[in-house]
Design brief:
35% of the residues lie in helices and 16% in strands. The protein is α/β, with parallel strands linked by helices. The chain has a seven-stranded parallel beta sheet with strand order 8-7-6-9-10-11-12, with helices on both faces. It has a five-stranded parallel beta sheet with strand order 2-1-3-4-5. α5 (98-114) crosses α7 and α8 (186-192) packs parallel to α9. The structure holds NADP nicotinamide-adenine-dinucleotide phosphate.
Length: 309
């Protein structure tokens, strides 16, 4: 493809923005708000992210679009069905972020159970001078349920075995070669587990998969960890369960309406709140950026994506 026109949907970090600007014939959507309605037919390739996505409305304005290269592994913000129906190919950045996201999940398991973030606040606020921090809950040897057992879920399991945890997983189809025990019934998994970690995709199929009933099954001694997508959890039910003490704690990297987080959670020591930083390390973000460019170049040169959805 000779010098295609690439649409950048939203701002990325400077290094990524500069490389896009330098190496491609680029349109920055936020700088030219009417571009799609006036000249959408000029666009050959979209560069976006799990955060910015590419909506069905945007797709409809780009009749000559051929490929979408996305930064991140989640694709719930991209109109995948509409794109596929038109033969538009999509790439994400799988695998290169598994380790960091799995590290984040284990970090949240430990921090929520042992309340390290809250203990740190206890020290900083001078409260140690008035007494010890209350006892917390053990992690090693406990039961870990993983919802969504793909690339990231399996890396979470690998780490948890180092903590001698008993592991079971839930997803739509059993993975007989995984070496871990499958649980077809999500409620049964939540009832069994001490920790329920979410690592499934977002989108309509998993919307509020974790509702009041599942939270009640996890119970007053159970801890929910979400590194998947905020939409997977009924956030109102989660806040209500934590307020009522019918759920033991929650470690959350993702929320239903990011960057807005329910303020009711702010004062709870058994809740850890992260600003969607699962993959946010220098090393992993660079690897993700490089994979976007590798996909972009492979599509331009050979009409093929390296990591197609
Ligand atoms: P993946 O390899 O595609 O794995 C997804 C897993 O979820 C599969 O095991 C799939 O198995 C299962 N699944 C799909 N639909 C399900 C459903 N309705 N109910 C239960 N399980 C379901 O994806 P991945 O690379 O591990 O990434 C997983 C998700 O993590 C991403 O989609 C993204 O939303 C999230 N993520 C978050 C961050 C962060 O910064 N916090 C970073 C990266 C990714 P079946 O198809 O057999 O059900």
């Amino acid at each position: 493809m000779s010098r295609p026109t690439v649409l950048q949907v939203g701002r990325f970090p400077p290094r990524f923005n500069e490389r896009l600007q330098r190496d491609y014939q680029l349109v920055r959507l936020w700088e030219q708000k009417d571009f799609l309605s006036e000249r959408g037919a000029d666009i050959d390739i979209v560069v976006t992210s799990a955060r910015y996505g590419c909506s069905a409305e945007q797709l409809a304005q780009m009749p000559n679009l051929k490929a979408i290269c996305s930064f991140g592994v989640g694709y719930d913000s991209i109109a995948v069905d509409e794109a596929k129906a038109r033969g538009i190919v999509i790439s994400t950045t799988p695998d290169v972020l598994n380790e960091c996201v799995a590290d984040t999940a284990i970090g949240l398991v430990i921090d929520t159970a042992r309340q390290f973030a809250a203990s740190d606040r206890h020290v900083r606020q001078g409260k140690w001078l008035n007494g010890q921090y209350p006892l917390t809950r053990k992690v090693s040897g406990k039961k870990l349920g993983i919802v969504g057992f793909g690339r990231i879920g399996k890396d979470i399991a690998k780490r948890a075995t180092g903590f001698d945890m008993e592991i079971r997983y839930h997803k739509r189809r059993e993975d007989p070669d995984s070496g871990y025990r499958f649980e077809a019934d999500l409620k049964a998994l939540a009832t069994w587990a001490d920790f329920l970690v979410l690592a499934c995709p977002g989108g309509a199929a998993t919307h509020h998969l974790i509702d009041a009933e599942i939270l009640a099954a996890l119970g007053a001694n159970g801890i929910l960890v979400n590194i998947a997508r905020g939409t997977v959890v009924d956030e109102q039910a989660l806040v209500a369960a934590l307020q009522a003490g019918t759920l033991g704690g929650a470690g959350l990297d993702v929320f239903e309406d990011e960057p807005r987080v329910p303020e009711a959670l702010f004062g709870m020591p058994n809740v850890v709140l992260l600003p969607h930083v699962g993959s946010a390390t220098e090393e992993t973000r660079l690897a993700m950026e490089n994979l976007v460019f590798d996909n972009l170049d492979a599509f331009i040169e050979r009409g093929e994506l390296i990591t197609p959805l």
